[in-house]
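1st attempt posting a full record on here, be nice pls
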Amino acid sequence: MTTGSSRSTHLDVGDRPRDMSKPLPSTLSWTVLLVFIAAFAVACLAADLPLWIPVLYLVMSVVGFAAYGVDKSAARAGRRRVSEQTLLTVGVLGGWPGALIAQQVFRHKTRKRSFRRMFWLTVLINVAVFAALVYVAMTKPGVLDLPFLSALMKG
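the predicted structure (as tokens):
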């Protein structure tokens, strides 16, 4: 059942308003992602960031992409879903680039307004933390190095 406007007034079975809206343009997501990747690459080189930071982003992005894929599949099949809290946590811990790609590839979690707002808030938090890490790396070289990882990599 729907009412006059198609933006966020769709009603589901219990006549509860659904939190749906038109997705943001996909070009916006891809642009944000490309700008971040370019800035990330420059920051890694300029600040001589330790290897664990790009590895963390890569691993968490793969986890984020997979989590969105699993959630989309579960939604289609009527199975137990991945919680939104889990999806947001993976994103804020560095997996948002993979999550953003998954949102576009699977066309998943792109219309629910409250989720989108929280997702973009977690992106801003993560980028702010990354900027702080870059600042620390540039002003206090070596402080972000993890001694146990250095020992593992050497021998």
